[in-house]
Design goal:
The chain is an alpha/beta fold. It has one domain: TIM Barrel, CATH 3.20.20.20. 42% of the residues lie in helices and 13% in strands. The chain contains 10 helices and 8 strands. The protein has an 8-stranded parallel sheet with strand order 6-5-4-3-2-1-8-7. Helix 3 packs parallel to helix 4. The longest helix has 18 residues. The relative contact order is 0.14. About 2% of the residues have low confidence. Bound molecules: pterin-6-yl-methyl-monophosphate.
C-alpha cells in the first residue's frame, strides 16, 4: 500500500522514559506508579501512542540487562493496557523485552537499531503482527557521537539505509504496512546533519511509509538556541512544525499538550498549501 503522507493526519507519540538516567526525565518517572500517572496525563492531553522505554539511549549511556529493562517496563505496559486503549510502543532493542511487552498488551516495537541489534527481533515482530518503527542510527548509543561523522549527503545516506532496512525486515516476514521510518535525530549525527534531516524529511516520506520524527528537547536544539534540556519547548515546536510541513506523520514528543497544537496547525497549513 502506498502511503499518502500529504493527506494523512499527524499523530503524537508521548515519551515515557522509565529510566533513572534519561537525559530529559532525570529519573523522575522511575517508579511505575508515577510513570503510569504521567502516561495517563499524556493520553488526556491527546497522545495517540505512548512510547515506553526502560533503557536510556543518551550518548554514552550504559546498556541495561534485559531483566532490569523488563522490571521497569512491564508493570507500566500492563497498567496502561488495563486502564486505557491508547496504542503502546515498546522502545527496546532486545527481542525478549519486545516479546514480553507485546504479550502484556503493547502494539508496536520501536527499535533504535532498526531491528539489527538482536537477530531474533524481526521474528518476534512478524509472529506478533506488531507495528515496527525502524530508526536510523550510526553505531550504538555508546559509540555514536565518536569518530568521523562526515557524510557527502546525510539525507541520501539515511534514506538509502532505511530503504535497505525496510527491504530486510519485509524479507524477514514483517508486512511493509506495519513499518514506520525514522531518521534518528541525534543518533550519530552532527548539528548540521540533524538540521538537514528535518529540513529535507520529505526525502524519507518518498519511501512510501509513514515517517516518525523525534526532535523533542534534543541537543541539536540546545546547540542552536543555547538553552538547557528543560527549556527547549519552543525550539521543539519549530522543528516539529517544519517536520510536519515536510510530511512527518508521527511526532515523538515529551510535551504532548503543546505539541498537539503545533501538529494541528502545521498539518492544516500543509494541507491548505498543497
Ligand atoms: N529518541 C530517543 C529514544 N528513542 N525512538 C525513536 N523512534 N526516535 C527517536 O528519535 C528516539 C527514540 C532519545 O530521546 P529521549 O531520551 O528524549 O527519549
Amino acid at each position: 500500500m502506498e502511503w499518502d503522507a500529504q493527506g494523512a493526519p499527524v499523530r503524537l507519540m508521548g515519551v515515557l522514559n522509565v529510566t533513572p538516567d534519561s537525559f530529559s526525565d532525570g529519573g523522575r518517572f522511575v517508579q511505575s506508579q508515577a510513570a503510569l500517572e504521567h502516561a495517563l496525563q499524556m493520553v488526556a492531553a491527546g497522545a495517540d501512542v505512548i512510547d515506553v522505554g526502560g533503557e536510556s539511549s543518551r550518548p554514552g549511556a550504559a546498556p541495561v540487562p534485559a531483566e532490569v529493562e523488563l522490571e521497569r517496563v512491564l508493570p507500566v505496559v500492563e497498567g496502561l493496557r488495563a486502564r486505557c486503549d491508547v496504542a503502546l510502543s515498546i522502545d527496546t532493542t532486545k527481542a525478549v523485552v519486545a516479546e514480553a511487552a507485546l504479550a502484556a498488551g503493547a502494539d508496536i516495537i520501536n527499535d533504535i537499531s532498526a531491528l539489527q541489534a538482536d537477530p531474533a527481533m524481526a521474528g518476534v515482530a512478524a509472529r506478533a503482527g506488531a507495528g515496527v518503527v525502524l530508526m536510523h542510527m550510526r553505531g550504538t548509543p555508546q559509540t555514536m557521537q565518536r569518530g568521523d561523522l562526515s557524510s557527502p549527503d546525510i539525507v541520501a545516506e539515511v534514506r538509502d539505509a532505511l530503504a535497505a532496512r525496510l527491504a530486510a525486515v519485509v524479507a524477514a516476514g514483517v508486512p511493509p504496512e506495519a513499518v514506520c521510518l525514522d531518521p534518528g535525530i541525534g543518533f550519530g549525527k552532527t548539528v548540521a546533519q540533524n538540521v538537514a534531516l528535518v529540513a529535507r524529511l520529505g526525502a524519507l516520506a518518498a519511501l512510501g511509509r509513514p515517517v516518525l520524527l523525534g526532535v523533542s528537547r534534543k541537543s541539536f536544539l540546545g546547540a542552536l538556541t543555547g538553552r538547557p534540556v528543560d527549556d527547549r519547548a519552543w525550539a521543539t515546536a519549530a522543528a516539529c512544525a517544519v517536520g510536519v510541513a515536510q510530511g512527518a506523520h508521527l511526532l515523538r514528543v515529551h510535551d504532548v499538550a503543546a505539541m498537539r497544537d503545533v501538529a494541528a496547525v502545521a498539518a492544516a497549513l500543509r494541507g491548505a498549501g498543497r
